Amino acid sequence: MKVDIFPHIFPRAYFDKMVETVTNKDAVRRWTNIPILFDLDARLRMMEGFGEYQQILTLSMPAIEYVAPATKSPELARLANDGMAEICAKHPKQFPGWVASVPMNNVQATLDEIKRTVETMGARGIQIFTNVNGRPLDDPEFAPIFEMMHSYDLPIWMHPTRPAKFADYPTENQSKFDIWWVFGWPYETSAAMARMVFSGFFDKWPDLKIITHHLGAMVPFLEARVGLGLDQLGSREAAEPHYKQIITDMKAKNRRPVDYFKMFFADTAINGSKSGTQCGIDFFGCEHVLFGTDCPFDPEGGPLFIREIIKTLDELGLDADQRKMIYSGNAEKLLRLSAPNGQHYKKK
Fold first, then answer.
1. What dihedral do alpha carbons 348, 156, 335, 346 form, nearest 10°?
2. How many helices (H) and strands (E) does the chain have?
3. 45 CB contacts (<8 Å, ≥6 apart)?
4. Which of 136, 105, 155, 141 lies closest to 198 in space, CA to CA?
5. Each residue of 250-302: pLDDT tens digit?
6. CB within 10 Å: which end of the chain, N or C, has fewer?
7. Adjacent-strand bridge partners of 210
């Protein structure tokens, strides 16, 4: 069994409302040309070709807080989550679980929606993005969200977001050549991870489970730079006075910054790169890597990433236990897929 923990979908009612609501139509133009995103029958037909293959559903971009202001985003989140729950209830064999979407520009509404979806609807976690319309995730206002998810002992899916308006250079108004996406998104994920590490997320919430999209982005490839480089935090220009104290406190716990980065989880959604996948597994360990594909954002509109990532994992020389962990075991454990709704979370 292969449990894909990071495919994307739009429940049809939400998709129609989102397209109507979003002011920047260019931001969703591509989405309207990928039927498997919003045509459930087309998705089910595609999935049949992969045999014992299931999907944990996550909402596609754009982020709900990007689509609507704080007064309207809670309603959109409820529409999306109701649609997700309905799809999974109708097709439990193909979709054994789903991830709740939350309106991060309205923190109280986010907390209310987490409680509703987890405790009464069976959501197996929530999805957030690497920034909230430009605000960092370690902004203290967002702390109650992480506190609540830690108390439920359920994972947070973290998806990168960075629009083209984030220019490549300060002298320009917009990024060029898709740099904002192909290189900007891995930077976004890596930066968000670093902010969490140095803001003490894993000391405040030691059992916090964050699944990084795209196999931890830049971090595994730059392991030595992250390790030996960030061991020297506070020694460079523009360093703030408390930086050295952060490292001192980590040393008191017999930890280095790189040790905290290894506490994240990561999916395999890097388009089937064999060397990249091996690098990610070497960094995080099989226990922290989950099968994920980014379906349907490939040139074929659905099956290509699934096919290539399975091929890569099967060619890496992993033993049977390691393959099972990545393909399904880690997902079953983190999401407690065998537990029915209402028993799949535990309050700390």
1. 10
2. 19, 12
3. none
4. 136
5. 999 999 999 999 999 999 999 999 999 999 999 999 999 999 999 999 999 99
6. C
7. 156
